[in-house]
Design brief:
This protein is an alpha/beta fold and 425 residues long. Helices cover 38% and strands 13% of the residues. Bound molecules: pyridoxal-5'-phosphate (PLP).
Length: 425
């Protein structure tokens, strides 16, 4: 076989045969392991990636554009700007809003309110762009930013709020949107761990001026590493395209004004702003295009597993609390976050050790209380109150895996680990 179609068929067949034989992510009681995540990428994605490599057009191009359009159309925004990580998506979003080309944007020294329970690169881009993070506490049930604490934190330099939908659990968007409108604050949604989550029927990430998502390996769908910013603001989208790629205008949709203003500079090498290189590749986009149609099924699976844990853990309700959704929230359950109730007669380390000894991977909830992380001491920031709830999550909460490959055997194994631990206390 030497014709292109025949060779591709043989390659695809080989990939599918390999995956069928060697990709088994089901639970095996004789070697019990329940991982925080198992790959979402299989034969479809591997074949899509290989095809890009064989085509030799690998750098950002039409597949990245197609992924951006598919994602934005399916999840309620006009524009998507794909990039190389969720951290880069946060950087791009904040950098575009803080750029002098955004007239109503953020300026050096302006404050951005963030939840104490956040990821490092929720907060770092704020600092990197010369802004000042203001850290406020969370709601102990949803684990999301507490709107009342935001209200309390607003000062004369406060210009934006950057909530995190923690573990896929949508924040109270009615309250946040109303508050941002009333207090004239820019809303930037860090939805990096919340793909596939909805609030009142609307996708998270589509409520604010800009939303960000991660496509990292362990997320709902993955392009290995990757991220995407979404917005319905055409100018902001174009600016993010400029900042993503060296500060040039090649991927900009509304290019004519730049061309008219700079007739003597080669349009392919016309640098209109100070940018980065945060681009994704065609291979990542091809994987993403194969993953996108699978997202709703993966989320349904995660929701069914979360429902199992809500029932199962109810019997330990005097000592354990699972993260809770508000009535309009449809979480995409990035994991199963569990908090020890105050007064529980054991420490979270005891329970985590018990899990680890049984092959059940576990971890703290994102970065814990970000104000307690040592990096913060180098940079100007403001902390509002004592952050008791985020502090408690950092000391007394953990999570274990909830993903598309969790099966009944894995559920039974983890349930048994809870039972055997509770029998010791
Ligand atoms: C809330 C939040 N923001 C940002 C990120 C960064 O995403 P990435 O790992 O793709 O850089 C993560 C990663 O999990 C996250 O959970």
């Amino acid at each position: 076989m030497s014709d292109k179609a025949g060779l591709l068929q043989a390659i695809e067949g080989g990939i599918r045969a390999y995956c069928d034989a060697h990709h088994d992510f089901s639970f095996h009681p004789e070697a019990p392991v329940v991982r925080l995540h198992e790959p979402t990428n299989g034969a479809d994605e591997i074949f899509a990636a290989v095809q890009v490599l064989l085509d030799t057009f690998v750098t950002q191009g039409p597949k990245v554009k197609a992924f951006e359009q598919h994602y934005a159309n399916a999840y309620g925004c006009r524009h998507g700007v794909m990039n190389n990580s969720g951290s880069s998506a946060n950087l791009l979003a904040v950098a575009a809003l803080a750029n002098p080309a955004t007239p109503d944007g953020l300026r050096a020294g302006d404050e951005v309110i963030v939840p104490a329970l956040s990821w490092s690169t929720t907060v770092w881009p704020i600092i990197q762009c010369g802004l000042v993070p203001v850290v406020v506490d969370i709601d102990p049930v949803t684990l999301n930013i507490d709107p009342e604490q935001i209200e309390r934190a607003i000062g004369p330099r406060t210009r934006a709020v950057m909530p995190v939908h923690v573990y896929g659990n949508p924040c109270d968007m009615d309250a946040l949107v109303e508050l941002c409108r009333r207090r004239d604050l820019i809303l930037i949604e860090d939805s990096c761990e919340s793909m596939g989550a909805f609030y009142d029927g609307k996708a998270v990430g589509s409520f604010g001026r800009v939303g960000t998502f991660s496509l990292y390996y362990s997320h709902h769908i993955s392009t290995l590493e990757g991220g995407i910013c979404v917005t319905s603001d055409a100018e902001l989208a174009d600016l993010m395209r400029i900042l993503r790629s060296h500060g040039w205008i090649r991927e900009v949709e509304n290019r004519q004004p730049y061309l008219d203003a700079n007739p003597d500079i080669d349009p392919k090498f016309l640098f209109v702003n100070v940018g980065y290189n945060l681009r994704a590749t065609e291979m990542q986009a091809a994987i993403g295009l194969a993953q996108l149609p699978k997202l709703p099924g993966f989320v349904d699976r995660r929701r069914a597993t979360a429902a199992f844990w809500q029932k199962e853990l109810a019997q330990y309700g005097d000592v354990l609390a699972m993260q809770g959704e508000t009535p309009k929230a449809r979480s995409s359950w990035f994991g199963i976050p569990v908090t020890l109730k105050p007064g529980a007669p054991f420490g979270v380390a005891d329970l985590r050790r018990h899990f680890s000894a049984r092959g059940i991977e576990n971890r703290p909830i994102i970065a814990g209380n970000i104000a307690a992380q040592p990096a913060m001491k180098y940079y100007a920031h403001r902390v509002v109150g004592d952050l008791p709830h985020a502090g408690h999550v950092m000391k007394a909460a953990f999570s274990f895996g909830n993903h598309q490959a969790i099966d009944d055997g894995a559920l039974a194994h983890v349930a048994e680990a809870f039972r055997s631990f509770m029998a010791t206390i």
